[in-house]
Design goal:
The protein is globular. Helix 15 links the parallel strand 7 (250-254) and strand 8 (282-287). The chain folds into two domains: 1-106, Arc Repressor Mutant, subunit A; 168-353, Vaccinia Virus protein VP39 (Rossmann fold), CATH 3.40.50. It is α/β, with parallel strands linked by helices. It has a seven-stranded mixed sheet with strand order 6-5-4-7-8-12-11, sandwiched between helices. Strands 1-3-2 form a three-stranded antiparallel sheet. 50% of the residues lie in helices and 15% in strands. The protein contains 17 helices and twelve strands. The relative contact order is 0.08. The protein binds S-adenosylmethionine. S-adenosylmethionine (SAM) binds at residues 151, 168, 171-172, 197-199, 203, 220-221, 224, 240-242, 254-256, 259. InterPro entries: COMT-like (IPR016461), COMT_C (IPR001077), COMT_dimerisation (IPR012967), SAM-dependent_MTases_sf (IPR029063), WH-like_DNA-bd_sf (IPR036388), WH_DNA-bd_sf (IPR036390).
Length: 354
């Protein structure tokens, strides 16, 4: 009898949870869309640069926005704790920033604005409409939406290529401090480091600053490195990682292998292995490891699963990998041993030795 009651209570709780949770599936996109709107209007920057609480009237005038519509946007963002309300010196309601709104500012150490703008861009949203076709018949969502794959698209569209570089730099700003603080010893004794698919060089700039003995090589497609900023102690080389990788003591790959299927990954990893010395070289990979139990409180598990869906929508055959899948590609690429370190980020750090 007790068991029957317990089962009935559980199903009642599940029903109540579903009644609420279903709305996240119906209107979940609204959070992303309003964040995009706030970034485009410069709301987080305007609130952040005001030293005291900013009233709706002041905010409307700074942004040149119609107050009643802006009020509705602010009410939404306050509800979801992007901003807080605080009384102004005139006793009216004002807005102040929070750690979340700081991450939506266009510039700054914590800015994730470009990543939000990339993921909400029409180019990146269109492939999601083809996800079910991909699962049933294997057509590539990005190709179905745009006729070419994402890298061919970026090669011919400089502004989208720039948006991807800026967005990846946001990811780097979130992950690289966790690497630097979590396992600095990984970079001991490395004289030169090639960042394969290094984008605009943000990752390498942070690594070289933290470990100044490293000479960095930023290696990416020619159209990417040609517009990447010139940086001291970082050499830029344009090329194709499927052909060869520039020589260095160690190769680094972040959010790069997940864009490709196992055979493509094995090819890239073999080229990295050839680029480093056999005795003391290593390949350092910063990528998600799906489904791994972590000792510390891990709140980013959902991010890894979301990234896997993003790979499905935006790349042709990319995916996030489980430990077993990493083992397969690393072993097939000829690495004798590897270790995995969990850091305070969605990615883990894999060191692979030739
Ligand atoms: C998802 S981004 C990661 C960027 C960077 N590692 C980061 O985490 O900020 C993948 C990078 O791989 C580069 N890429 C794609 N195909 C490539 C190729 N065949 N050779 C070299 N780089 C390539 C892209 O241009 C892009 O910068």
């Amino acid at each position: 009898m007790e068991e029957t009651k317990r089962v009935a209570k559980l199903s009642e709780e599940e029903e109540a949870h579903a009644e609420v949770e279903i709305w996240n599936y119906i209107f979940g996109f609204a959070k992303m869309a309003v964040a995009k709107c706030a970034i485009e209007l410069g709301i987080p920057d305007a609130v952040g640069s005001h030293e005291i609480p900013i009233s709706l009237t002041e905010l409307s005038s700074v942004l040149g926005c119609e107050p009643s519509r802006l009020h509705r946007i602010m009410r939404f963002l306050v509800h979801f704790q992007v901003f807080k309300e605080k009384a102004t010196s005139q006793g009216t309601t004002g807005y102040i920033q929070t750690p979340l709104s700081r991450r939506m500012m266009k510039q700054g150490e914590n800015s994730m604005a470009a990543l939000i703008l990339l993921e909400t861009s029409p180019v990146m949203l269109a492939p999601w409409h083809h996800l079910s076709d991909h699962v049933s018949s294997g057509t590539f969502p990005f190709v179905a939406a745009h006729s070419v794959d994402v890298w061919s698209y970026t090669a011919r569209d400089a502004s989208h290529s720039n948006l991807i570089d800026e967005a990846m730099a946001c990811g780097a700003r979130a992950a690289v401090p966790a690497i630097i603080n979590g396992c600095p010893e990984v970079f001991d004794g490395i004289g030169s480091l090639v960042d394969v698919g290094g984008g605009n060089g943000t990752t390498l700039r942070m690594l070289v600053k933290a470990f100044p003995w490293i000479k960095g090589i930023n290696f990416d497609l020619p159209h990417v490195v040609s517009v990447a900023p010139e940086l001291d102690s970082i050499k830029k080389i344009g090329g194709d990682m499927f052909h060869s990788v520039p020589k260095a003591d160690a190769a680094f790959l972040m959010w790069c292998l997940h864009d490709w299927d196992d055979e493509e990954c094995i090819k890239i990893l073999k080229n990295c292995r050839e680029a480093i010395p056999v005795e003391k070289g290593k390949v350092i990979i910063a990528e998600a490891v799906i489904g791994e139990e972590r000792e510390e409180d891990d709140k980013l598990d959902f991010v890894r699963l979301m990234l896997d869906m993003v790979m499905m929508a935006h790349t042709s055959k990319g995916k996030e990998r489980t430990l077993k899948e990493w083992d397969y590609v690393l072993t097939r690429a000829g690495f004798r041993r590897y270790n995995i370190r969990h850091i305070r980020a969605a990615s883990s750090l894999i060191e692979a030795f030739p």
